[in-house]
Amino acid sequence: MDFLPIFITLDQRSCLIVGGGEVALRKAQLLLQAQGKVTLVAPEIVPEIYNLKGSLKIHQRIFHENDLEDVDLVIVATDNHILNVDISQRAKDRGVLINVVDNPKLCNFIVPSIVDRSPMIIAIGSSGTAPVLARLVRSKIESMIPHALGNLGKLAQKYRQTVKDTFASLTQRRRFWESIFEGEVADTIYLGKNKLAEEKLLNLLKQGAANLSKEGEVALVGGGPGDPELMTLKAVRLLQRADVVVYDRLISQPIIDLARRDAQRIYVGKESDNHTLPQDQINQLLVDLAQKGQRVVRLKGGDPFIFGRGGEEIATLMDNQVKFQVVPGITSASGCSSYCGIPLTHRDYAHSVVFATGHLKDNTVDLNWKGLAQPWQTIVIYMGMKGLEIICAKLIEHGLPATTPVAVIHKGTSPDQKIVIGDLITIQTKVQQQQLKPPSLIIIGEVVKLHEQLSWFGESEALASFAVNQ
């Protein structure tokens, strides 16, 4: 983060604009809307600037150093690079906020693109590097945010202190406002019935804390294979209203960042021979949190019910009469294979697909090898890296040709995705050469041949070709 996004008040604070063209006009309009006291200096000034309303002084002349006296904020909008550099340095030496339009290196603050639903303000910035992109993002947000949102914000502003006096805890206040912003009061505002919306809010206030649910709940949420854009809409919505997020090792940071900033985050990741918490303690943790009235998201990589032990967790919740729901996620087999151009089924190569776990126990892998080693079938092995050599040997022993293609996918769907291609004989050596480590997924079957033709994401194709030629 190159710039910290903040909001400052300009109410009657002194602002200087150097420049008199169309850009200076837009900046002056913005500062005046924010109640700033604006002085504009330029030898040439477009006529529209003289028509602006508000606290504005105009000097049609060149910039003087003493223009910076008692100024809180400066915006420079000229084409004179030497002048821009000079003003920037002088302002910084005085500790004054300075923005030089379209020159981030000369700035110590950036003017963002703005969606104005006062008192709700949404600012979109690109650290000054891509203002056109910021404006495009702004236009998308503009189309999504109702214009009446401002009226909802004004209603909240009016009753903020009353709500604070009514509800003792921060959690109660947050849940009250969520019920306002996501319920009938907001719907009524959007219909333009502001007075009726205020009456509904007052009725809810009269009911006080008794109207707020004290019951906790747990949502088992599938986080998908890694790419945050593969999360479901419901998963994101629950994350953004959770009080606590309990998450696994395979959950990527961008997905965790989707949660509310003030939500508690509890890591319970498990690696081979290194469990932060045993499963039974995780189960009990979810119960304890919910019984304290917390809204908990149990965030699990992939899908909660595919090698995610979600069934064990909800069984414990049911035994303790804890309210819960399950939100499916894209399992790693589907996500990783798609991002590597490997269809799990294909009429010319595979008529079925089977998922299995390759987790070692007592230095062996106990699977139905005869059932796995079938023609026209794709095998997907989760957690199989330590047992890769055993898995390949057993499949050959039970009838699969040694030349059966194998793909090992590391951190699939993420920017760090890597894929190594080999066969049942060569894949172990190739994986060692590429130093792939967990988390990695193993796909075995003739469909792997399609990777070279269908690969589309990231650098996987180049790495696969390199690996095959070793």
Summarize the entry for a quick read.
The chain folds into 4 domains: 14-111, 3-Layer(aba) Sandwich (Rossmann fold); 149-211, Helicase, Ruva Protein, domain 3 (Orthogonal Bundle), CATH 1.10.8; 217-330, Cobalt-precorrin-4 Transmethylase, domain 1 (3-Layer(aba) Sandwich); 333-468, Methyltransferase, Cobalt-precorrin-4 Transmethylase, Domain 2, CATH 3.30.950.10. Helices cover 36% and strands 19% of the residues.
Structure in words:
The chain has 470 residues and is of the alpha/beta class. It folds into four domains: 14-111, Rossmann fold; 149-211, Helicase, Ruva Protein, domain 3; 217-330, Cobalt-precorrin-4 Transmethylase, domain 1; 333-468, Tetrapyrrole methylase, C-terminal domain (Methyltransferase, Cobalt-precorrin-4 Transmethylase, Domain 2). It is built from 18 helices and 19 strands. It has helices at residues 22-33, 47-50, 81-93, 131-144, 149-166, 170-181, 184-190, 194-207, 233-239, 253-256, 279-291, 310-319, 332-339, 369-372, 388-397, 427-434, 451-454, 460-468, and strands at residues 14-18, 37-41, 56-59, 73-76, 97-100, 113-117, 120-124, 217-222, 244-247, 264-267, 270-271, 274-275, 295-300, 323-327, 352-357, 377-382, 405-410, 418-423, 440-444. The strands form five sheets. Strands 3-2-1-4-5 form a five-stranded parallel sheet, sandwiched between helices. It is globular. It starts with 13 loop residues before the first strand and ends with a helix. Residues 460-470 have low confidence and may be disordered.
